[in-house]
Amino acid sequence: xDTSGNVAQCTQQVxxxxxxxxxxxxxGANPLIVECHTAFTDPGATADDICAGAVAVTSSxxxxxxTPSSYTITYSATDPSGNTATATRTINVVDSLAPVxxxxGANPLIVPCQMPFTDPGATATDACASSVSVSASGTxxxxTPGDYTLTYSATDPSGNTANVTRTVTVVCGTPxxxxxxxxxxxxxxxxxxxxxxxxxxxxxVSGGIGNVIVVCNPPSGSSFQVGTNVVSCxxxxxxxxxxxxxxxxxxxxxxxxxxSMVTTAPAVRYQNPSRVVKRGQLFANDNxxxxxxxxxxxxxxxxxxxxxxHRGDKVTLVRGLSLTPGSRQPRNPSIAAxxxxxxxxxxxxxxxxxxxxxxSR
Length: 361
Ligand SMILES: [Ca+2]
Ligand SMILES: [Ca+2]
Ligand SMILES: [Ca+2]
What we know:
Order of helices and strands: EEEEEEEEEEEEEEEEEEEEEEEEEEEE
Strand content: over 45%
Shape: elongated
Low-confidence stretches: 322-331
Number of strands: 28
Bound molecules: calcium ion
Largest sheet: 4 strands, mixed
Number of domains: 4
Strand order of the largest sheet: 2-7-6-5
C-alpha cells in the first residue's frame, strides 16, 4: 500500500528442490580381505539422504572366493527425486595358507641295506589350489648304514610353501621275515548254532626289521560258519616287508536234528486194543540243515525203515499186531505214506552232516 492508499498484491511461488544425492556408508572394512575358500558375505552398506532420510541400497558385482583376485562391489542408492549416489568396495580374495603335505609310507622308514630303495613319496593338498605338486630332495645311500633325511616341499600358486622331512634308516644284516601259521584248527559248532566262536594260536614270526605286526583275518575269537574257513595271516615289518601264511579253521556240525510228530487227528483204537491208528505231521529242527531227513521204524521190527520224509510230511501210522514187518503204501496224495508197524513207532532224523538223532517214540 502506498501513501495514496493503493494496494498492490503479488504472489511468489517457492519450489523446494532436492538436488543432493544420498550419502552411502559402507559397513565393514574397505578394502576387505577374504581368505580363499572361506564363506564370504557382503557386509553391505547404508544410505542416508538429507531430505528423504534412509534410502535403500542396491549392490552389484561378484566375488569368487575360490579364486584369489581383487573384486569390486558397487553400491547404489537413489533418493525419491532421482538423485543417485554410488560407492565401491574392493574385496581381495587371498590364499595365505601353505599346502598340507602327507607322506606315503612310514616315517621313520627303515630299509634294508644293499637293496634298491624307492622313495614312497608324498602328496600335497591345498585349501585354495586344486592340486599342488611335491618335490623331494635328499639322498639315501643303501650301501652305508645310517639315518638319511628326505625333504618334501610343496608351493601353492600364491607362493605359500610347506616342507616336511622323513628319516630313512638304512639297516644291514637283518634276517628274512618269516611267518608260520598254526596247523588246521577243528572245532564243533556252538550249541544251537550253525557256527562257532573259535580262538586259534597266533602265528610264529621271525626275522624282519624293527617292529613286526601280525594281522590275521578273520581274527581269533570271530564267529566261524560250519565248514572250512580259511584264515590268512600277514606279518609286516617296519621296512614294509611282508610274509603271509594261511590255515583252515574247520567248524563241524556235531548236533543232530530233533524230530517230532504232531498228531493231527486223534488216535483211533480198533477192535483189537493193541491196534491203533495215528495220523500226524512230521517235523525236524536242526542247527544247520534246513531239510533234515526223517525216518520211521517199528519198535519190534528193527530192520524196517520207512522214509526218508521231509518237514511237513503227513503220515498215517497203523500199529499192527501180528502183521509182517511194516510197509510203506502211499494212498492219499496229501499223505506221504501209510505205514504199518510192529510195535510203537520210532522216529529219528539225520542232518546233512550225518548226525543221527536218538530214536524216540
Ligand atoms: Ca536427496
Ligand atoms: Ca594355499
Ligand atoms: Ca546239525
